[in-house]
């Protein structure tokens, strides 16, 4: 006799596991398919902007592309794009201020030439290359251009998203305990439904409606009675009233002729006294 417990037949289904992270090769293949499916207009806009900023500093488009993929491939894309928007505002203000100072220095306005000369001496003393924003200065100014233009990476990522939206807006489905509960077989569901129907009280039977023909006939009679004018009252005089009273007092004629015995009995009966007429003129009002 085995002491092991029988397996539970109504075990809940296992929870869905998240997909494993993609490898570097899978990510590269996915990006290659994405670029192959682009239209020629979007491809031209993206390639032109990337080429211009690569000529200025190669690190800027790479950082912007990484931010674009990072924010668009997550379910928390709202929070990520909100942070990129905040960084783009601050970086835009910083780069605009740098270009404004460089323009005033080249125009020899006020003390800006002396200020830029002091900054260039400090840069040469502590950092490699020259402090310049011109791409024609060669490799000597690539470090300065990278550090001064790198804050534009969030703004460039927003431009990439505007030209080619790749944010996954659809939210993942979250399973509830009701979804994870084991489903009952159909036979038990049918039995339970029939038992509930038998236990539930039946509603009282409604009276059968009358046929339409009877209802229409009764409605027509009611309408005719309502439309017909009322009959005027009959005027009865005293002579008419007495005549009708005498007619009611007279016996009805027999339906068959009287026999000889009845005729003899009627002949023997005394004749009624004649009634005296009433003089209505002597009656006091």
Structure description:
- By secondary structure, the protein is mainly α.
- The chain has a domain of 140 residues.
- Helix content is 57%, strand content 0%.
- Helix 3 packs across helix 7 and helix 4 crosses helix 7.
- It starts with 23 loop residues before the first helix and ends in a 17-residue tail after the last helix.
- The mean pLDDT is 76.
Architecture blueprint of SSEs:
Layout: H1 24-36, H2 40-56, H3 59-72, H4 77-106, H5 112-126, H6 142-149, H7 153-163, H8 177-180, H9 186-199, H10 212-227, H11 238-249, H12 260-268
Order of helices and strands: HHHHHHHHHHHH
Number of helices: 12
Q: Beta-strand percentage?
A: under 5%
Structural class: mainly alpha
Radius of gyration: 58 Å
Largest beta-sheet characterization:
none
Overall average pLDDT: 76
Fraction of residues in H or I helices: 55-70%
Distance between the termini: 129 Å
The best one-word shape is: elongated
Strand count: 0
Can you tag this structure with a few keywords?
285 residues; single chain; mainly alpha
Outline of this structure?
This protein is mainly alpha-helical and 285 residues long.
